[in-house]
Amino acid sequence: MLKLDNLTADVGEGDGRKTILNGLSLEVPAGEVHAIMGPNGAGKSTLSYVLTGREGYEATSGTATLNGEDLLEMEPDERAAAGIFLSFQYPVEIPGVPVMTFVRAAINAQRKTRGEEEISAPDFIKKAREIGQKLNIDAEMLKRPVNVGFSGGEKKRLEIFQMMMMEPRFAILDETDSGLDIDALKTVADGVNALRSEDRGMLVITHYQRLLDHIQPDRVHVLAKGRIVKSGGPELALQLEKEGYDGILGEVA
To answer: Tens digits of per-residue pLDDT, 19-32?
Structure first.
């Protein structure tokens, strides 16, 4: 599925250019959910941006492949069509564009790139209603401009709605639990768990154990100074919760 080998990446331009990822290696097989945890500035969000092709985030060495395909050679839209999905830590507002219009356009753009037929309006509406009910998203919310006037919890639920509608091959969730109350957290986690499948991989980036109480990861990785310094099972997240990052980083120093 996703394989990163000695990935190094810079952020910024000119004199402000800075290396954030330092030889990061990671493999997430199909059918597994992996969690990445780490202190602020470790490179967690940078990793998600490099994989999805955000401007200003440049891989300088190493490789990143999805099912053997070179992600670093693809444009951002090509990566999306290949099945990469990113749930943002801070979802942006898109004034004037209704949620339903935005999501259907995104789905059909990906289908066109893959040479597939567009999703029909009846099929799209039926699917949107079914997924909306699972995430406590009503029809009125789907008519509103994307994220405009939405609460933090509504924005995060909408991100999961988009993910469930698009059914990506590989999903990256960048601190989706940030700012969520317990009810919203459970709703988001239920949506993520509903997408677990043998042919899909997920990478959950988080600071806290509480999300992993609801999304049980197969593996947990600790990221520090741009590289993976320790990996383990779900118990590693519990150890982090108990000892903090200083305790773990002291072990591997």
So the answer is: 999 999 999 999 99
How far is the CA of 150 from the CAs of 90, 107, 137, 157, 158, in angstroms? 12, 22, 12, 10, 9
Tally of domains in the chain? 1
CATH number of the domain encompassing residue 106: 3.40.50.300
The residue written with tokens 């990469």 in the block is 84
The structure tokens 């990445």 sit at 36
Determine the pLDDT at residue 80. Answer: 92
Q: Which one-letter amino acid corresponds to residue 112?
A: K
Which residues partner with 10 through β-bridges?
A: 19, 58
The answer to whether 218 and 28 have CB atoms below 8 angstroms apart is no
Q: Write the CB contacts of 234 (distance below 8 Å, at least 6 apart in sequence).
A: 212, 216, 217, 220
Burial 86-95 (b: 16+ CB within 10 A, else e): bbbbebeeee
**Amino acid, single-letter form, for residue 118:** E
Q: Which tokens go with 109?
A: 């753009």
